Fold this sequence. Notes:
This protein is α/β, with parallel strands linked by helices. It has 2 domains: about 1-80 and about 155-238, 3-Layer(aba) Sandwich (Rossmann fold), CATH 3.40.50; about 85-150. The chain contains 9 helices and 10 strands. The chain has helices at about 45-50, 75-80, 95-105, 115-120, 135-150, 165-180, 195-200, 220-225, 225-235, and strands spanning about 5-15, 20-30, 35, 60-65, 65-70, 80-85, 155-160, 185-190, 205-210, 210-215. It has a 6-stranded mixed sheet, sandwiched between helices. Strands 2-1-4-5 form a 4-stranded antiparallel sheet, covered by helices on one side. Helix 3 (about 95-105) runs parallel beside helix 5 (about 135-150). The longest helix has 15 residues, at about 165-180. The radius of gyration is 18 Å and the shape is globular. The N and C termini lie far apart (about 35 Å). The model is unreliable at about 235-238 (pLDDT under 50).
Amino acid sequence: MDNEVFRVEGVSKMFGAFQALNDVSLGVRHGEVLAIIGPNGAGKTTFVNIVSGVFGPSRGRVLLEGADITAFSPQRRTRLGLSRTFQITSLFGGMTVAEHMQLAVRGGDTLGHERAELLEEMGLAGSAPRPVDTLSHGDQRILEMAMAMATKPKVLLLDEPTAGMSVAETDTMIRLICDRLRGKVGVIIIEHDMSVVTQTSDRVTVLAAGAVAASGSPEAVLRDPLVKELYLGSAAGH
């Protein structure tokens, strides 16, 4: 596909006799936001772990800018331009915001112009000297995204970026994804909040029982009766 920066091809994953993913293929173009949705047990966590290199697929390939990175470690993937955030905050409480930004790019005794500029763009410029455990939950999640962006990724994987956020914090995250990421970097977002999905994504892929059940524009996917049955119906009770 033209301008495609990332692709998984025919990815399957077995855990013993259990098939967590079954022949999943999808791609992301530069600047595009692709949302991955699906009910519990759909295979989203397994997909995230394969994309980020936590473990390899039983079959299939993972490609970054056309190069096969299936066997590469998470660290090597990051160096090549595939960064991620985590569903559960993974910051170090005793360290400051500035120190976390330094850690993200592995160097420097000062924040540096680019990192300071990035913090300003993300609304965290005034928090640089603060320990991260004094930040709100929303600002901690935004810092994690800033750290991932500091590595200058070609593809950014956001794993449940609005988990645990208030309505106001979620609105801020939506704005940052749209203004700071969309159109600038390929983004894969794993998200259960359908409002976030519809406001941020260009395309949506639905996983169900480890396979791709539907894919298309947010509007088309959310009108799909199968999607309503598989995902929206099960989500209605949450």
